[in-house]
Amino acid sequence: MAKCVTCHKPVILDIELDEDDEDETMGGSASANTGSYVDDDVQLQCGCHFHWQCLLDSYSMTECPDCGRNLITTTPSGEQQLLCNLKNEGGLQEGLDILPILTEESYLKAYPEERRCRAFLDFCGEGDVEAIVDLLNDDGGEEEDEDGSGEDAGHGTDVLRYQDQFGSLGSGLHFAVQNQRMEVAWLLLFVASTLKVDQFPTAVLQAAQNLGIQREDQNGKPDIRSLKDSQGMTAEERAASIGEVWTEWLQSGRLKPPAS
Fold first, then answer.
1. Which pLDDT score, from 0 to 100, does residue 20 have?
2. 171 and 223 in contact (C-beta within 8 Å)?
3. 60 or 5, higher pLDDT
4. Are the C-beta atoms of residues 40 and 11 closer than 8 Å to each other?
5. Is the confidence at residue 154, as pLDDT, over 50?
6. Interval 73-112: pLDDT, tens
7. Distance in angstroms (rounded) separating the CA atoms of residues 54 and 43
8. Beta strands 73-74; 49-50: pairing state
9. Other CB atoms within 10 Å distance of the CB of residue 173
10. What average pLDDT score do residues 142-151 get?
């Protein structure tokens, strides 16, 4: 079995089994890769093997952290890529381009305060309302401003209005619209827009109350509906390009940015 060139341990990841899994394994019905470990092998083009976390901890953008070989190649269209063979619990993926992930991780290593913001965008795209509320209520070890707006006082990052720095420049509302996450859209309008309370369905207001969500003071803050992505589109314009579930929202005007 290959070993990680960083920690010199086999490229596997130990896992804890619950009682049902242990019984299944003891009975001989589990596969060879569902025992007390799973594969965790990133083989770079230079031939070096890493655990995924070991690679993230030591990655230096263009070269192998161990042998120093330049790992960047180009696609037929001229874009940069960093190919590897990745073997994990999902099986083997050959020729996988991990440059976007490594670039993002390098950025977050330099700006760790934005990790929560990235998680926020992911939750908006996934439609995980409870995770969004927990993230906004949890200061993650950092103090929030007194109004509880989700803005980290230490570095001024407004989580609610954070925009994707690695691609679309979309806000959480863009992510919710793109992935047709209506509940998330209602939540973001409630906490980060000036949409009047009487425009919200009773069920939405009741859900907000049950989750302990309060509207923040919008003075001096941009309405989330006015934020534009890298194509210059607001969430309303993005919704118009999708249609379908957003038709009624567009007709009602609730996604329309307020007049400046």
1. 57
2. no
3. 5
4. yes
5. no
6. 999 999 999 999 999 999 999 999 999 889 888 888 888 8
7. 12
8. unpaired
9. 29
10. 43
What the block records as the tokens of 21 is: 């899994």
Q: 258 falls in which pLDDT band (50, 70, 90)?
A: very high
Query: How many CA atoms are closer than 13 Å to the CA of 207, on its beta-carbon side?
Result: 14
Pairwise CA distance, residues 73 & 138, whole Å = 41
Could you please report the per-residue DSSP string of 90-119?
TEEEEEEE-HHHHHHHHHHHH-GGGHHHHH
Question: What's the one-letter identity of residue 88?
Answer: N
Whole-number Å distance between alpha carbons of 78 and 95: 17
Rg value, the chain, Cα: 23
Cα–Cα dist 67/60, whole Å: 12
Compute the distance between CA of residue 36 and CA of residue 201 in angstroms, rounded to an integer: 49
Digit-coded pLDDT (tens) for 30-39: 344 555 889 9
Q: Tokens at residue 98, please?
A: 């991990």
CA 136/CA 154 separation, integer angstroms: 15
Residue 14's identity, in one-letter code, is D
Furthest-apart CA pair in the chain: how many Å?
A: 68
Residue with tokens 């509302």: 173
Is there a contact between 58 and 67 (Cβ–Cβ < 8 Å)? no
